[in-house]
Amino acid sequence: MFAATSPPRVRVGIIGAGQLARMMGDEAHDVDVDVTVLATSLSDSAVPSVDHVLIGEPGDEDALIALSRVSDVVTFDHELVDLDQLSRLEARGVIFRPSPAALRFSVDKSIQRAEFAAANFPIPRCCIIASSSDLPALEEWLATSDELTVVKAARGGYDGRGVLFPATREDTVGVVRDLVRTGPVVVEERVTLLGEVAQLVVRSMDDDVVAYPLVTTVQDNGMCTEVHYPARVDDSLAQRARELGVAIARHIALVGVMAVEYFVTPAGLLVNELALRPHNSGHWTIEGAATSQFANHLRAISGQSLGPTRATSDAAVMVNVVGASEPGSLAAARAVPDVYVHDYGKTWRPGRKLGHVTAVGDDPLDLHVRTWRSARAYGTCTREV
Ligand code: ADP
Question: How do the pLDDT tens digits run along the chain, 385 residues long?
Fold first, then answer.
């Protein structure tokens, strides 16, 4: 007689221990995985929610090797990673999901733009400046149009950092000359934004791809302040966003969850950027969808089938809480009826993402009012728009 035994849990290692790792940790046992984070300190956001913690820097090869030794698969809390280092470790047998080859598309805007232009995915008109010797090519490119430009560091930017808006087209060269000293730069046309939307997709190891409902994102100074389901666009645009998201997931051989951020322009959708990890635009799925983005990411990277992505209510609103000049009150935020307040366990600092608030229901206006009332009580510095 043998006792029935269940297969051992897949051991997931996460590079980084911020709020995304914390929310993955919250769902890990429901999807039968065991999580170890590589944290820089015991006060990192994810430490209370996961099974095991290693202390180390995300760029330290010995720390990454230590993480890989206690993990069947390694994934990411953030994308501030060294792709060459990850590729070296992959060659030594470490399994990363998503792979370093797929991660290139989110870590480096110049790679994404160059490869998407070649693959005919819609992107803003752009010019890639790898070094100062490319500046004459920039002058030629600038001569082809009158539009204003946006200048972006190809790597290392997030929440609007590393994105510059030259006051005139002529100012572009000076801005790029300075920025290219720190690495490759993408210069693109400043498009007319009718809005911004985000499409979350998940691809499994056996090429099943599921898509969440499209959402509208609202940005303030390059930082996402709020997210609305359903997206404020017509059905044909939502369908196009979904089809493109699925095609991109297959094109880059994604495994796991990916957010595709789009610009909505008079000429249609343009891809802005990709995030190959659970994303701020998908936090509403914790309460608002049949399977959250965190659960589906863990399912995908641990080789399981994917869960359903349908919304479970007519509408959802999520508002980020970003530290204001004075700390607010979590208790007051929680006292607002019918909201879900997620506190990331971080110490308050002005400008720091401290948590988010979600409300789900059938009246988008009511959800909007309640999430903002709660977020303001919590002490957010972002303003209602
Ligand atoms: P980050 O990587 O920091 O999120 P993004 O490339 O998303 O930077 O740019 C931040 C914000 O700047 C975008 O959400 C958008 O509002 C604005 N922006 C970026 N590129 C363009 C563009 N080509 N045209 C108009 N606005 C842009």
Answer: 555 677 789 999 999 999 999 999 999 999 999 999 999 999 999 999 999 999 999 999 999 999 999 999 999 999 889 999 999 999 999 999 999 999 999 999 999 999 999 999 999 999 999 999 999 999 999 999 889 999 999 998 766 678 999 999 889 999 999 999 999 999 999 999 999 999 999 999 999 999 999 999 999 877 899 999 999 999 999 999 999 999 999 999 999 999 999 999 999 999 999 999 999 999 999 999 999 999 999 999 999 999 999 999 999 999 999 998 888 899 999 999 999 999 999 999 988 999 999 999 999 999 999 999 999 999 887 665 4
| Ligand 1 neighbour 79 (Cβ under 6 A) | no
Q: Which domains does the chain have, with CATH numbers?
A: 10-96 (3.40.50.20), 125-189 (3.30.1490.20), 195-378 (3.30.470.20)
Write down the pTM of the prediction: 0.95
Taking CA atoms only, the protein residue closest to ligand 1 atom 8 is 160
Distance (angstroms) between ligand 1 centre and the Cα of 191 equals 10
d(CA 74, CA 296): 15
Q: Which residue's CA is the nearest one to ligand 1's atom 16? A: 222
Is the CB–ligand 1 distance for residue 69 below 6 Å? Answer: no
* Atom of ligand 1 at shortest range from CA of 261: 7
Sheet containing 126-129: which strands, arranged edge to edge?
126-129, 185-189, 149-153, 163-164
Dihedral (Cα; 204, 210, 215, 221), 10-degree rounding: 20
DSSP bridge pairs for 280? none
